[in-house]
From TrEMBL:
This is Oxidoreductase. The keyword NAD applies. Pfam families: GFO_IDH_MocA, GFO_IDH_MocA_C3. Residues 134-273 form the GFO/IDH/MocA-like oxidoreductase domain. The lineage of its organism: Bacteria, Bacillati, Actinomycetota, Actinomycetes, Micrococcales. One of its GO terms (molecular function) is nucleotide binding.
Length: 384
């Protein structure tokens, strides 16, 4: 058995931490999860016992000054992402953080710049970027398989909150109920926006689109009661890029037929690729391709090199994709090389795109990109 080379502390012991983060790290023989932090003592105790992690604390600050901890993994609720990430970077730790780091893209960029100045690496929880099918598709794109990229279509669709009595997470229960606020596009659209930028590989120049609230009253987890919740249940966006490229994004969590579901399509001068990341018939991912002289897409096999060791498309997607994510991060850190895909800089780009989408909706007009805010004024203030 390999001797662990990387020591990780996971902050947060909720559903996503125990479903993906902790088992993903423990799958890699180069990594040891040495500590857990969680304010909920019952959740902390349960995770500590389940995964055999002896050190368990209720205050993450106790872990920051430990010289034997290399990585802080932030798997808490959104409200604590930025505080913990910045504290960990200032303490000299590499940081993996769930999205978003901050709802203001400039704060995320500030965190990225601080990490870079300290020689540290960061990574966002863009889980779907690390699906083997998505990684393989990117290889095909980069090696010219589709020729010159023309168009990207991205979908993040699922039906998990179609029922208004399903407790909703990641919303501001105190927000103005008369002003539609981002939820789907920020929490669920972010992964497909990340893939759009990554695959098209050209600067975005402008966006236009809209968002809708379809289910106005919901059960909110933090309050435990039904209340008016004026959030975006669905979105549609169009984006223009340099090099004559176009993209579109559709995000929703009230879309019947997917739970969860991401689909990424790219069309070029020589061919096209469709990757579908939906658990169907016991398989969590498929990749289909077509060439310009063929009118039908055909499914192709994903090479084993794009999987974690022993991985297969029959595994649950949260475990498979996150295993790839943390494996990639461990490799980047241990290599000492500058490579660092899906980092906080990319997170800032995705968050800036979300802020541009929101501004387009508020102004009912095309929005130029990148955004430029007057000094001292936040983008959320401008679009409110």
């Amino acid at each position: 058995m390999d001797t662990p080379q990387l020591r990780v502390a996971v902050v947060g012991a909720g559903r996503w931490a125990v479903q993906s983060h902790i088992p993903g790290w423990q799958r890699d023989p180069r990594v040891e999860v040495v500590a857990l932090a969680e304010v909920d003592e019952d959740a902390l105790r349960s995770a500590s016992e389940r995964f055999g992690v002896a050190r368990a604390v209720t205050d993450y600050r106790e872990l920051l000054d430990d010289p034997d901890i290399d990585v802080i993994d932030v798997a808490t609720g959104n409200a604590m992402h930025f505080e913990i990430s910045m504290a960990a970077i200032q303490a000299g730790k590499h940081v993996l953080c769930e999205k978003p780091v901050n709802s203001d893209y400039r704060e995320t960029r500030r965190a990225a710049e601080l990490a870079a100045s300290k020689g540290l690496k960061t990574k966002l929880g863009f889980t779907f970027r690390f699906a083997p099918a998505i990684q393989y598709a990117k290889h095909l794109i980069d090696t010219g398989w589709i020729g010159e990229p023309y168009m990207f279509n991205g979908y993040e669709q699922n039906s998990q909150w179609l029922d208004p009595h399903t407790p909703l997470r990641q919303v501001d229960a105190d927000a103005d109920p008369d002003v539609i606020a981002v939820s789907s596009i920020e929490g669920y659209g972010a992964p497909i926006i990340d893939i759009m930028h990554w695959w098209l590989d050209a600067p975005m120049t402008s966006v236009v689109g809209t968002m809708r609230n379809f289910v106005p009253e919901r059960m909110v987890r933090d309050t435990g009661r039904m209340q008016r919740m004026n959030i975006d249940d669905g979105d549609m966006w169009i984006a223009e890029f340099e090099n004559n490229r176009l993209g579109s994004i559709q995000s929703s969590y009230v879309t019947v037929g997917n739970f969860p579901g991401i689909e990424a399509r790219i069309y070029g001068s020589e061919g096209a690729i469709i990757v579908r990341l939906v658990e169907e018939a016991g398989i969590c991912q498929t990749i289909k391709v077509a060439k310009k002289d063929s009118v039908e897409f055909v499914e192709i096999e994903i090479p084993q090199e794009y999987f974690p060791e022993g991985g297969a498309s029959t595994e649950p997607w949260p475990f498979l994709f996150y295993s790839n994510l943390v494996k990639d991060f461990a490799t980047e850190i241990l290599s000492g090389e500058p490579m660092n895909q899906g980092d906080f800089g990319q997170g800032a780009l995705v968050q800036e795109t979300i802020n541009a989408f929101e501004r387009s909706f508020r102004t009912r007009a095309w929005c130029d990109f990148p955004l430029e805010a007057p000094a001292g004024e936040s983008d959320t203030e401008r679009v409110a």
